[in-house]
Structure formats: C-alpha cells, structure tokens
Design goal:
The protein is built from eight helices and eleven strands. It is an alpha+beta fold and 266 residues long. The chain has one domain (3-265): 4-Layer Sandwich (Phosphatase 2c, domain 1), CATH 3.60.40.10. The strands form two sheets. Strands 2, 3, 4, 5, 6 and 9 form a six-stranded antiparallel sheet that branches. A five-stranded antiparallel sheet has the order 1-11-10-7-8. Strand 2 (22-27) and strand 3 (32-39) form a beta hairpin.
Length: 266
C-alpha cells in the first residue's frame, strides 16, 4: 500500500519576541518537513535554524537522487532514514563551524525535527526540544524525546511533569545542532496508517497551549492549513511568549491514478 502526505505549515514571531528565530521547511515533492528553533545572541538563532533546514534538505535531496549509502550506516533503519540522519549531521557540522568562525555567532545552535514519508513509513530525525506528535484514532502521542535538562530529570523521576513545566531550567538543552562536533541525532521509523496526522512544533506551541487543547484542535475536520492557523492563533491568544512554528502532515491513501503514475516514473 502506498501513501501520500499532505503538508501544511505556519510560523509566527509571537507576541513577546522582536524577531523569529524559528525556521520551517516543507518540500512536498520530497515528502519532507522540518522545523528548527534557533538560539544565540543577536540574529545568530535565525542564522543557525535557517542554515540547518537548508543544509538538511539539500544534502538529503542530493543523497536520494544518487542513492548514496552514507557512512556510519545503521542497519536498524532503511536507506532513506540513514540518509536523513546523515544530512542532519552534515547540517550540524556547518552550523558548528559557522558558530566558531566569528565572535558574533559564537555559541549559536538550533533544534531540528524532521519527518520524511517513504513508502509506508515515516522516518524521523530529531535533536533538541522541538517536538513531533502522532495523532491517530483521536489520541495525540509525542513520538520524540525532549533533549532538555528538565525532561532528563523527569525521566529519572527527580521532577514531575507539572514541576518541569514551571521550572526555570526548562530552556536548558542537553543536545542541539551546532553546540557539539558530533551530537547524537535520534532516528526513528513509524509505520503509517491512513488519516494519521503528524504535528511538528517548536516549544512556542506546547509551552503556551495545553496538550488537551492541541488534541481538541487536531480532532477537528478542518484541513491542515486551517488547523495550523488555529494552533498558532491559540498560542498567541495565550500570550504568545515565544516564536511558534507548526507543521501538520496528513497521511492519505494514493489514488489508483497516482499509483500508476508512480509506476510509470520507474
């Protein structure tokens, strides 16, 4: 069975920030979607997140077109997942070098969360505390792990989820692109079902909007773009404390015509 993914996205500065350090990339022909939340002084955060999404997309496209098998291949994952992970690692190298080349960019970095539809599965590459959720059968489930100090404490049982949400340490990341030479990038593969919805978002969404409210919005029948608009609007109505970026990818079954078209391309 073959699926297609309908991608919609929206990014907003929010109500409290002067500039938007988030970046979003949706490439429908590649079935690829990426969110990134930059950090650093002056405009360094914007630079880091923009650089990361562009390098990831360009390197992945290059590897996919050539079928190149990347170094450090992990046999637990398909070729496309390995290619995506390698592309993110290359993006890390570029951001890391840029951050160490000029004083004004010193210490810049970015989160990055990406999904890729390949065949009957979604490939995920993730680092930082932006999030990817799967909405299936009315249930919203986080499928990435936050690489933050407070969430490490939650996982170890040192803090409750409620305490973590109020902790002054919640913005301290344990992993991000550009802050280390070779950070670990989480990879994952999820078999998909028709009508699955994937939500990618920066922390400007889930720190301003409760998961119950996000779930309520994801349950509606509105199309992806309208749902993205409502999520961003709700975050801003709740104070808009940070930049907010969202992507919704909806899985649909390909029509017979689309399937035949794919076969003719081969």
């Amino acid at each position: 069975m073959r699926f297609k993914i309908e991608l919609a996205s929206l990014s907003d500065t929010g109500k409290m920030r002067k500039n938007n350090e988030d970046n979003v990339l949706v490439d429908q022909p590649l079935n690829l979607a990426i969110v990134a939340d930059g950090m650093g002084g002056h405009s360094s955060g914007e630079v880091a997140s923009s650089m990361a999404v562009k390098v990831t997309r360009d390197k992945f496209e290059s590897m996919q077109s050539t079928g190149l098998k990347p170094g450090g291949y992990d046999n637990k994952y398909a070729l496309e997942t390995n290619q995506l992970g390698f592309a993110v690692q290359l993006a890390n190298s570029v951001v890391y070098e840029a951050g160490n080349s000029t004083p004004e960019n010193k210490g810049m970095g970015t989160t990055l969360s990406a999904i890729l539809l390949s065949g009957n599965k979604i490939s995920i590459a993730h680092i930082g505390d932006s999030r990817i959720y799967l909405f299936r059968d009315g249930v919203l489930q986080q499928v990435t792990e936050d690489h933050s100090l407070v969430m490490e404490h939650v996982r170890k049982g040192l803090l409750t989820q409620e305490q973590a949400e109020k902790s002054p340490l919640q913005n301290i990341l344990t992993r991000a692109l550009g802050t280390q030479k070779t950070p670990q990038v989480d990879l994952k593969e999820i078999p998909v079902m028709e009508n699955d919805r994937f939500l990618l978002c920066t922390d400007g969404l889930f720190k301003a909007v409760t998961l119950d409210k996000i779930t309520e919005i994801m349950k509606t029948d509105m199309d992806g773009q309208k749902a993205c608009g409502l999520l961003v609007r709700t975050a801003n109505e709740n104070g808009g404390p940070d930049n907010v970026t969202v992507i919704i990818g909806t899985l649909k079954r390909k029509t017979l015509k689309e399937t035949l078209g794919d076969m003719l391309k081969k």
